[in-house]
Amino acid sequence: MNSSYYRSQIERVQRHRADAERRVGELRTKEANKRSAATRAREAAERTRMESTRVGRLREAARLEGAANTAAVEAARWQTKVAGFVKNEADLRVRLDRADRSEREAAERRRERDKQATARRDASEMASFRDRLDAAEGLAAYAAMADRTPKRERLRVLMLGASSEGDLRVGREQKRIRNAVESALHRDLVDLDVRPAATTADLLDGITKFRPHVVHFSGHSGEDLIEFEDEIDTHHAGVVVTAKAFARAIAATDEPPLLVVVNACGSAAQIPLIVEEVAPFAIGMSAEIEDADAINYAAQFYAAVANGQSIEAAHLSGRAALELAGLAGADLPILGHADDAEPASTILVEPPG
Q1: What whole-number distance in Å separates Cα of residue 198 and Cα of residue 173?
Q2: Does residue 232 sit in the same domain as residue 116?
Q3: How many domains are there within the chain?
Q4: Which of 51, 71, 110, 139 could staple 30 via S-S, CB 3.0–4.6 A?
């Protein structure tokens, strides 16, 4: 039991003891009054000359004496209760002292654990800080990559679509994106390399040959995998690669992309890996997304990019398109970025000034 419990029990016992002591006092007073009245009755009996009166007063004295004796017995019984309450309180105070000591020791142990945890956290943060210092050269190179915006050249977008079982409308998505770009303000500043039924060979070839600023994949994925197609003309099981292998393939170039979009279910889990090892910006889906939602988001996103909007504004525009269309997936597209990258100020398409 904790100290609060014992304190409440002590207060309860003290209340009972006070009630018992009050009862003892009342009974002792009653005893004294009855004995005094009995004494007066006997004295009155001795003074009277009439026999009948004397007998009556002696009887009254005997009755009063009996009542006094009853009160004395009852007072003794309540006095025993008082003694019991006193003993009970003493026992409870011993237990309270033990509980207080135990709680103080427990609090001291918690303080010591917190102190040790703080020391470990400080050591971890210091180690992390040293690691960041050791990686300064690499971070500087990465920052230079983040600053490599294609404002003075045409934006190159590599579009990879894969649906080996034919259950996704990736062709429709690629068509909607192309139409959106061709209707945009700066359509002449965007080049699309569209690869439907994309294989892993298409990925590598597109990265090294097309040198894209944006890599867009639409198809099946999960938290740690991507599914490409095989060189088969009929429906077939997809070629599954790990998210890490996908990221390394994209990074295997002298000019890594600025943005990677994985327009597939559950792909938002891959964003940290991409922004740490591949590109300063990444977009993924936080859960399963319907075809219509994915298509509408992508079309509006690239329309906004080709209209000269920043990455963040284009992302918000794509989500707004889903809300305006009454689609349920407006919150699913997630934009992530490296610590030194600013999506609100990074514009992928800007005409020469």
Answers
A1: 14
A2: no
A3: 2
A4: 71
Residue 1, judged by CB atoms within 10 A of its CB (0-12, 13-18, 19+), counts as exposed
Which residues are bridge partners to 336 per DSSP? 282
**Is residue 66 in a domain?**
yes
Q: Note the pLDDT tens digit of each residue in 164-195.
A: 999 999 999 999 999 999 999 999 999 999 99
* 209 plus 113 within the same structural domain: no
Kindly state the average pLDDT of the residues 147-163.
79
Residues 120 and 150 in one domain: no
Indicate if 22 and 167 belong to the same structural domain: no
Instruction: Output the pLDDT for position 123.
Output: 82
Does the pTM surpass 0.70? The reply is no
- Structure tokens that stand for 294 in this block: 């994915």
Residues 6 or more apart whose CB falls under 8 angstroms from that of 32 comprise 68
Identify whether the C-beta of residue 210 lies closer than 8 Å to the C-beta of residue 190. no
Range of the domain at 54: 3-133
Q: CA 293 to CA 280: how far, in whole Å?
A: 25
* 247-295: pLDDT as tens digits: 999 999 999 999 999 999 999 999 999 999 999 999 999 999 999 999 9
